[in-house]
Write a structure and sequence with these properties.
Oligomer: single chain
Number of helices: 6
Structural class: alpha+beta
Distance between the termini: 42 Å
Strand order of the largest sheet: 1-3-2
Order of helices and strands: HHEHHEEHH
Radius of gyration: 15 Å
Number of strands: 3
Helix content: 55-70%
Strand content: 5-15%
Shape: globular
Length: 106
C-alpha cells in the first residue's frame, strides 16, 4: 500500500459518513451554534449528530466553545480549515456529476 493510499484511507476515516463532511463544510463560513448546525443537516438524529461532532473534535478538526450569546458553538481548527480545498473540489465534482446524471435521465 502506497503513502497516497494510506493518506486517502485516513482522510476517509476522519470524514466518513454523511454528516461529517457537511458539518465541516458548513463551518468553512465561520463559527455556528450547534443548534444551527443540527437544524441544517439532512438527517436529524441527535445521537448520530453528537457522535459525528465528537469524532471531528477527537480528530482535531473542530473546537467547541460556550459563549454567552450563542450558547454552545462550533468552529474549525487550522486542521479543519485545511480541508477547504478538497471539500470544495468534491462539492464541485458532485454538482457536475449530479447535473450529468439528471441530463441522462431526461
Amino acid at each position: 500500500m502506497g503513502d497516497e493510499d494510506k493518506g486517502l484511507r485516513y482522510t476517509t476515516s476522519v470524514l466518513a459518513g454523511t454528516c461529517r463532511p457537511l458539518i465541516v463544510t458548513a463551518l468553512l463560513d465561520g463559527p455556528q451554534s450547534l443548534l444551527n448546525l443540527y437544524q441544517h443537516l439532512p438527517k436529524r438524529n441527535l445521537c448520530s449528530f453528537v457522535f459525528q461532532l465528537c469524532s471531528l473534535w477527537r480528530n482535531g478538526l473542530i473546537q467547541l466553545r460556550l459563549t454567552t450569546h450563542r450558547g454552545l458553538s462550533c468552529r474549525l481548527t487550522k486542521a479543519g480549515q485545511s480541508t477547504r480545498p478538497f471539500l470544495l473540489l468534491m462539492a464541485e465534482w458532485g454538482k457536475h456529476r449530479r447535473e450529468a446524471a439528471t441530463d441522462r435521465s431526461i
